[in-house]
Amino acid sequence: MSNRRDFMGMALGSFAALGALGALYAAKRTWDPLPSVKSAGFTTIDLSPAQENVLVTEKWRGKPIFILKQPANAPKSDREIHVAGGRYLVVVGLCTHLGCIPAYLADKKQFKCACHGGEFDSLGVNTFGPPPRPLDIPPFKISGTSVILGETGPEYEKMLAAGLTLKV
Ligand code: FES
């Protein structure tokens, strides 16, 4: 009898351990940055592994960069970048009020800044509180399925000329 109990305990323990490992792996995949290559002020980020409504944070010249793949049915915006059929938000992850790093609330599709309660929608547009403007868009150039941060492509020039972002 005790052998059977031991066996059941071991089986349940193994099952729980496998579940925990699976959860850890899923969490790690979510936290993993996208594949990127950095060189002399430029960062090339392959956007193809990004998942809809899952925020990825990269780094460019010491600044956090937020990358958020937009759901296919999200309203279109001049602030999104089109790469290989996908629609992405690529912005500097610093609040335009006093520079705190906002958190992304996936369930509300909203960025929330804990410092003074500022809010931005999923395209980085300020919607509430003290932030005076949308999240800034870093200079970028599209190359295949990647964006090269630090290079200035025609899509970025157009956004700049339209006043959609300040120069950072
Ligand atoms: Fe974000 Fe003030 S720094 S609301």
Task: Please summarize the sheet with the most strands.
Answer: 4 strands, antiparallel
What pattern of helices and strands is seen along the backbone?
HEEEEEEEEEEEEH
Which residue ranges are poorly predicted, with pLDDT under 50 across at least 5 consecutive positions?
none
Which descriptor suits the 3D outline? Answer: globular
Order of strands across the biggest sheet? 1-2-12-11
Briefly say what this structure is.
The chain is an alpha+beta fold and 168 residues long. 23% of the residues lie in helices and 31% in strands. The strands form 3 sheets. It has a 4-stranded antiparallel beta sheet. Strands 3-4-6-5 form a 4-stranded antiparallel beta sheet, with no helix packed on it.
